[in-house]
Amino acid sequence: MRWPAAVVALAAASTSAVPPESTQRALGYPSLFLLVLIGALVPVVPTGALVSSAAVVAFHQTAPFSLALVFVTASLAAFLGDAALYWLGRRGLRSKNGSRWLEAIRSRAPEERLAQAREKLAGHGVAVLVLSRLVPAGRIPVMLACLMAEWPLRRFARGNVAACLAWAVTYQVIGILGGSLFPEPWEGVVVAVALTVVVSAVPGAVRRLR
């Protein structure tokens, strides 16, 4: 994975000359919303690292409710992105020619992971959808399983609310932990990104060992 190094370099460069808090707020929240939304639609953007980094910056700000705004921004963007991707996937299933969005979802859901997701979804329902956002690379197989089970958008959206809230809290806590260790925001960003990488790499490492 190459994106963590790029994120660390970008974070270090951007925080070496920290702009005023008002500028950070004016630019940071819309940027966070847009990047998380894009990351939900195109699952290559490191959205977890983005949320953790934003939480570090908010932790060091003096303005009230900064962390709360990061939480609301990230969870809302993730929810809207997931809902849009699911809607596009359902549209592709109904189309005779499919769609590139549906193919993109299928390409990121290996058969073994998809079979596991379908089995767990049939047995535990919405709880699996909630947990899927907390497990690295777990969101897309479960979303595809929901599509194949013909869940309506409304049912998926209801379960996905809790999933996005839990996801935003988890990565924000990682950012707060990283930000609380160092006096400078950029140092906390580096630690937060490193923690995010470790969390993302553990499930894959366990699977390879098995």
The Rg value, from CA coordinates, equals: 18 Å
Oligomer: single chain
Number of strands: 0
Shape: elongated
Percentage beta strand = under 5%
Unreliable stretches covering 5 or more consecutive residues:
6-18
Count of separate DSSP helical elements: 10
Structural domain tally: 1
Residues in helices, as a percent range: over 70%
Order of helices and strands: HHHHHHHHHH
Major β-sheet profile: none
Structural class estimated from helices and strands: mainly alpha
Average pLDDT for all residues: 77
Distance between the termini: 21 Å
Can you describe this structure?
The chain is mainly α and 210 residues long. The protein has one domain (3-209). It contains 10 helices and no strands. Helix 3 packs antiparallel against helix 4 and helix 3 (47-59) crosses helix 9 (153-181). The longest helix is centred in the middle third of the chain and has 29 residues, at 66-94. The chain is elongated. Mean pLDDT is 77; it is low at 6-18.
Which helices and strands, and how do they pair?
Blueprint: H1 3-15, H2 21-41, H3 47-59, H4 66-94, H5 100-107, H6 111-124, H7 126-132, H8 139-148, H9 153-181, H10 185-209
Helix pairs in contact: 1-10, 2-3, 2-4, 3-4, 3-9, 3-10, 4-5, 4-9, 6-7, 6-8, 7-8, 7-9, 9-10
What is the compact description of this entry?
This protein has 210 residues and is an all-alpha fold.
